[in-house]
Task: structure prediction
Amino acid sequence: MKLDKVSIKENTSGKSPTKTAQEKRESATMKQAHSTQSASREKFPESSHAKEDWLLRRLPGWFSGPLIYGTFCFLFYRERRRPLRHRVEARGERTNRNLLMAGMTALALRVTERPLVSRLSRYVTQRKVGVLKWLSLPVWLEIPLAVVLMDYTLYWWHVLTHRLSWLWRFHVVHHIDKDLDASTAIRFHFGEMVLSVGWRAGQVLLLGISPLPLSLWQTCLLISVLFHHSNVALPLSIERRLVKLIVTPRMHGIHHSTRRDETNSNWSSGLTIWDVLHGTLTLDVPQQSITIGVPAFQNPRDLALAHLLLMPFAPQPPSWPPPETHPNNE
Result:
């Protein structure tokens, strides 16, 4: 009887070696799966709180700042080695003037855009406002889609700066530069940039743009604008491939032409597809046949810094001469 009791006790409380090994394998498999899921959530968070935390981040300044500055310096160097167009104005004086205007613009944006748009971007993320938030997309899809939509809506802002006379008064300051290079990319009238803050706020609010894709788009935009304003002669074979996807120096050079029909084309800032879709793409213009600038502002005095700053607030002549009329057309 004692042996039976011991045997029963051992059989009920003990575990066979086979079962223990199987459980260990199952436990290891579960831990591995849990580890994989955790890593996946870190890359592409699934829960709403984890996703929100990701989207509320911004690209760090230590990354975007040197990247933008490095791009400018590289293009500035390449413009000397392989220029696309012949220079009209002396480099030193013109570059200093453009950099001074860029500094004023940066200060104006720091005072106006950053406080408003940054807060609005956090608001739409936390309150789930805007198209992208209503769609409830995964992070890996929302971020690139946000960048693309910001690029598309910027296309329309650029169109408006040409079509609306009160906006053109500011934007023309950018266009009357007689040369086109990387310094032109950051030479805008500070008034135009202040006016653009309202459009930017509308983009963020309507589309539901979070801080992470917003900062990513801003960095990509600055790099793109520096690149396609540059006076770098890319090998034609490379540029023909690039222009199918992004705006290139030759493509944007046509937009800065003194001919009105050429200026009213190539409005894209990042992706070329917007000009393709809206029939505003022009590529078949040789660069050496292009005169950069605006016909009404060919006097050297028009390029003085004081004149550029006061231009939007002073009377301006028509930027282009009226179309020629012929007796047969009357």
Q: What stands out?
A: The radius of gyration is 29 Å. The longest helix spans residues 91-127. The CA atoms of residues 121 and 209 lie 6 Å apart.
